[in-house]
Amino acid sequence: MGLICLSPVMLIVAILIKLKMPGGPIIFRQKRVGQYGRLFIVYKFRSMKVAGGGKTSIASKEEERITPLGQKLRRYKLDELPELWNVLKGDMSFVGPRPDVPGYADKLKGHDRDILKLKPGITGPASLKYRNEEDILNSVDNPQEYNDKIIYPDKVRLNLYYLEHYSFLKDIQMIICTVLGKKMEYAGEEI
């Protein structure tokens, strides 16, 4: 239903990407770690200039390869609309932990690996709390270190809480808060 209802928006975004960011694909594809550690291809609208090898990578907002259109797509999460195809295929869910790039899931040890029991989601508690992650990373001296020592462990904590305290009503609330850009109370904090 989401693909059908949002197809006009997706068509407009695809046309804008083709016009404003020529010379590259409309859809960005990347391997991500899914449920039980299985790799799958995630689909997103391209938000960056094409790199030398024809591929794009994760970048902070200030990265020069992110285009002005790409910044807007990321800000309003429109770049993630093609992930509805991943939901339809069964690789993802609407709510769950964001799928990590290979390497990060390998760092999970012990009980933390339990989050791999969950199907990754388009949104979730960690996505809501860190909706402005690019801004946070751009405000620190060493973004990689800050992500690895502060943000990523906190995301794991929130995703474990989600696993252990699943609620259909909270899922609906997270979807609504994602669409409206609102905050909500979760795990004893505002996210």
Structure keywords:
alpha+beta, two-stranded parallel ribbon, 191 residues, 6 strands
Give me the secondary-structure topology.
Blueprint: H1 2-20, E1 27-33, E2 39-45, H2 68-75, H3 83-89, E3 93-95, E4 121-123, H4 125-129, H5 133-138, H6 143-164, H7 168-180, E5 185-186, E6 189-190
Parallel strand pairs: 3-4
Antiparallel strand pairs: 1-2, 5-6
Query: H/E series, N to C?
Result: HEEHHEEHHHHEE
Please state roughly what percent of the residues sit in beta strands, choosing from under 5%, 5-15%, 15-25%, 25-35%, 35-45% or over 45%. Answer: 5-15%
How would you name the oligomeric state of the polypeptide chains in this document? Answer: single chain
Mean pLDDT: 91
Summary?
This protein has 191 residues and is of the alpha+beta class. The chain has helices spanning 2-20, 68-75, 83-89, 125-129, 133-138, 143-164, 168-180; strands spanning 27-33, 39-45, 93-95, 121-123, 185-186, 189-190. The strands form 3 sheets. It has a two-stranded antiparallel ribbon with strand order 1-2. A two-stranded parallel sheet has the order 3-4.
